[in-house]
Amino acid sequence: MKLQLKYYVFLTLTIAFSFSEIKAQNKVLILGIDGCRPDALLAAKTPHLDNLWKNGAYSFKAKTDDLSWSGVCWTGMLTGVWKDKHKVMGNQYLNPNIKEYPHFFNLAKQQQPDLRTYSIANWSPVHKILQYNDATVVKHKPTDGLVTKSVVKTLKNEDVDVMFVHLDNVDHAGHKYGYAIDNSKYIKSIEKTDKKIGRIVKALQKRKNYANENWLILVSTDHGGSGTNHGKAIPEHTTIFYIASGKDVEKGEIKKQVYVIDVAVTALKHLNIDLKEAWNLDGNVSGLK
Ligand SMILES: [Zn+2]
Ligand SMILES: [Zn+2]
């Protein structure tokens, strides 16, 4: 009898200890809004994005590559290195150096091969830096509406660990009507995109296992613009925003200079990936505790 009691005490303690050991699963969602100037984002009515940055870490003075083309900047964001290393110099993605500086999905999988990664984009060239052997689920959708629909469905039904989402309408509006805070059509496109962000975040929070998941949401852009174009090394083109939302962020404005290349590095950190010296990353962790 005494022995049995001892056994039960032991069992109870073991079970209690095991439960206390269960940690929420760290996951990352990156929302990329192409060509969205931070001043225009602040001028637009964007309740969903406001909710993320006002309760999160943020910078509206972050910097992207001096060569402010989409291909160059998205590659920096997703590899964590500048163009002298990743070698993508334009939207044609000629000879990307992904063998030496791969997409961060690939870096993460070197240590956690079972991670389930997703890339859902309106502008399909962003997928050109994914590795052929990387088991990423890749979806190209021709409109932001269809991207959003696909993201919502995927978040509902799939066991996602990391997801990159690319929305393109704001950049389309900039090229067509002009990138400026006094351009109502450009502002309107940001407001419409905010509604899509709202649908995506809601879908995330409705995930079956959400209570046991620890999501970091990163929202940023590849570049700004002026007139009806971008590509130059001027503040209107190279100033971007950076938002980090989740339980592990240090709330408030990020005081140091934030760069587009910090996105991949911050995502890796949140996934508990050991940031290897040999990877030679340029970015830093931004906005986490
Ligand atoms: Zn772009
Ligand atoms: Zn553009």
From TrEMBL:
Signal sequence, renumbered to the chain: none
Gene3D superfamilies found in the cross-reference section: Alkaline Phosphatase, subunit A
SUPFAM superfamilies: Alkaline phosphatase-like
Pfam families reported for this sequence: Phosphodiest
One Gene Ontology molecular-function label: hydrolase activity
Highest rank taxon of the organism: Bacteria
Protein name: Alkaline phosphatase family protein
Organism of provenance: Hwangdonia lutea
